[in-house]
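Researcher: I'd like a structural prediction for the single chain below. Treat it as a standalone chain; there are no partners to consider.
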Amino acid sequence: MSIRVVVADDQDLVRTGLVMILGAQPDVEVVGEAADGLEALDLASRLRPDVLLVDIRMPGLDGVEVTRRLAGPDVTDPMAVVVITTFDLDEYVLGALRAGARGFLLKDAGPELLVQAIHAAASGDALIAPNVTRRLLTTFADRVPSTPVQPVDPITEREEEVLALVARGRTNAEIAADLYVGLSTVKTHVASLMTKLGARNRVEIAMWAHDTGRVRGDH
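Model: Treating it as a single chain, here is the predicted structure.
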């Protein structure tokens, strides 16, 4: 089964390049292209792609608002959204991830990382560009922590290990390799952490880990 993708970017040249990269993958099918935020919202709502790849700065609606409407906390059937941009400003990164994005890439990340992010989002995982992850960790370290929710059910020792790796931006596949366990086992632990912490995504898991002092920003 091909991963169905809608690509949204207001720059024709950039959009064409993204479509070419993704279209060259044997298991990816670009099913729609949008040149602004409203068109992206309409196309994604009608076509229900497996992944929406959206630029953060577009006319009409920006990528953060598009993401919030398709994958935000109030959405009952959230879509997998990967945000891509030339700007790695903290407010863009955090805004997109808090809006429900499953990935965040800079446009200079390269084809390989782009394809990895699409595959990760389609499989329920998340990929954030490594340089962006480092910035996020610094941002978490510098901000005043919120009062973390205490889980009703205790977090197991193995879940603590998974929690720390999620907070450092590792994908499920990387966590599986680090801990020498199966991918399905990691997914089970991540799902359990989301349930115990009331988190909707990996970013909220990471923020909880930082707020409770489990992960420091310099790691």
